[in-house]
Amino acid sequence: MNRVVITGYGIVSPIGNDKETFLNHLKEGKHGIGPIKQFDASETGITVAAEVKEFPLEKYFVKKDTKRMEKYSLFAIYAALEALEMSQIDTQKEDMERFGVMIGSGIGGLGTIQDQVLRMDQKGANRVSPMFVPLAITNMAAGNVALRVGAKGICTSTVTACASGTHSIGEAYRNIKHGYSDVILAGGAESCINKIGIAGFAALTALSDSKDPARASIPFDTDRNGFVMGEGAGVIVLESLEHAEQRGATILGEIVGYGATCDAYHMTAPDPNGEGAARAIRAAVEEARIQPEDVNYVNAHGTSTQANDKAESKAIEQALSKNAYVSSTKSLTGHLLGGAGGIEAVASLLALENQFIPPTANINEVDPEIQANIVVNDAIETEVNYAVSTSLGFGGHNAVICMKRWEA
Predict the structure, then answer these.
(1) Which residues carry out catalysis?
(2) Residue 120 CB-density burial (10 A; 0-12 exposed, 13-18 middle, 19+ buried)
(3) Which pTM was predicted?
(4) 174-225: pLDDT as tens digits
(5) Catalytic positions (predicted)?
(6) Domain layout of the chain by residue ranges
């Protein structure tokens, strides 16, 4: 079996599109939530979202690319190229048939679907864009990344709602662990801040209707009332330890365990006892060959909904030591849906690298029913050797990865 290490990462996020900005905002607990600017959201009853700011399109793209790819694909490519640059992999020297891409998305090109359905309704079926399908389908973040870098190995897109990014990383880890690939770009991407995306989740009463950006995404707080839609992408470079050492790579961290389970309980609600999520956490820890008390940090799914946060706290309490620090970086980034696992894997890696626990920001009072050890408002500097990142998706999907601090 191969050990699987991380040698690079890239992010597009509401709190920064580069390592320094993203890391500083994590440490400072500075959120990226504000009034929705991408469309007039007044009819939806929702006023805030966590939008990507100042996306540096010109770094890797030309204007034509925006017509041929949906925004979530652009985000994925940007994050993947940033990750490759950090890893210093020379694709000209790689066996690209053993170089894969596994990038998930929960919904894909929802903006294109919205716009083209309206176009068809208003102008007729023969006016639908010939680019409709390539723009809309959910696998095209992975496909477009593979096209851009020339990856000819495994190329898949896991679609498990909000667990998509973490499932993609976990499956990439297993693929390399068992020797099928040398290198995989893994993570998630999403961009659904549009009228149908906001309206759809609002109809489910899943979104926060707070008008105050600082009190909208407040995981584990007594007054939480729904999540804040975010957007962006997080992609990491995974490779076998042998491959990384042979090319003299700088190793940033290691993936040591992965758990994937299903609640089989409800279409959108988690099992209130947290049983399925707890099994996924235990599976990741067992594969890592560590004890529950060895986990120092849990980057929780922590959506800021009443049901999720209670159930997830119970899962963490069942599976891990009560001393494990827990926080939700969705208080800063909002909820990136299928992209959440990618961004949160990077946040967990940075916690390991920099020996700190990111805070759950803007909390007034932790719900007394939540007994997990929630880190509130201020980052904590402490020893972090193992971190767990959890993602729980509609449909009962649970995905958990366990990461280890790298020590040469």
Answers:
(1) 162
(2) middle
(3) 0.97
(4) 999 999 999 999 999 999 999 999 999 999 999 999 999 999 999 999 999 9
(5) 162 (for beta-ketoacyl synthase activity)
(6) 4-246, 256-403
